[in-house]
Amino acid sequence: MNTSDSIKAISIALVNSQNEIKFAIKDSTNPHFKSRYADLGSVIEAIKESLISCGIGFIQTPTESQIGTLALTTRLIHISGEWIEDTAICPLQKNDPQGYRSEEHTSE
């Protein structure tokens, strides 16, 4: 995890935000495992309003990674200028543009 030099204000805002966050709705189905899950849209819907009301925005960007992996960095940005970020790295089934696209479906 990487952070700005200070995270005092964003830490307080995150704690306040957690009081308002609702569970994401499990609105998608994984036919392979016959289970339900909350897709990315549902997760964003569950957190976005609470984060914004506490002065927090977020961005997600693809990040340089090793061949055969997909790296996605998420940064939470507070109105104070403070930030917290981390990167998730997932293996790809194929190392080409279609592999990046198919990873979205296999991780659901």
Beta-strand percentage range: 25-35%
**Which strand order spans the largest sheet, edge to edge or round the barrel?**
1-6-5-4
Counted beta strands:
6
Distance between the termini: 24 Å
Shape: flat
- Report the total helices: 3
Series of H and E elements: EHEEHEEEH
How would you name the oligomeric state of the polypeptide chains in this document? single chain
Mean pLDDT: 87
Structural category is alpha+beta
Query: Residue share in helices?
Result: 25-40%
Description:
With 108 residues, this protein is of the alpha+beta class. Helix content is 32%, strand content 32%. Strands 1-6-5-4 form a 4-stranded antiparallel sheet. α1 crosses α2. It starts with a strand and ends with a helix. The mean pLDDT is 87.
Task: Provide tags for this entry.
two-stranded antiparallel ribbon, four-stranded antiparallel sheet, alpha+beta, 32% helix, 108 residues
Q: What is this structure's SSE topology?
A:
Elements (H helix, E strand, L loop, with lengths): L1 E2 L4 H11 L9 E3 L4 E3 L2 H14 L2 E8 L5 E10 L4 E9 L5 H10 L2
Antiparallel strand pairs: 1-6, 2-3, 4-5, 5-6
Helix pairs in contact: 1-2
In short:
The chain has helices at residues 8-18, 40-53, 97-106; strands spanning 2-3, 28-30, 35-37, 56-63, 69-78, 83-91.
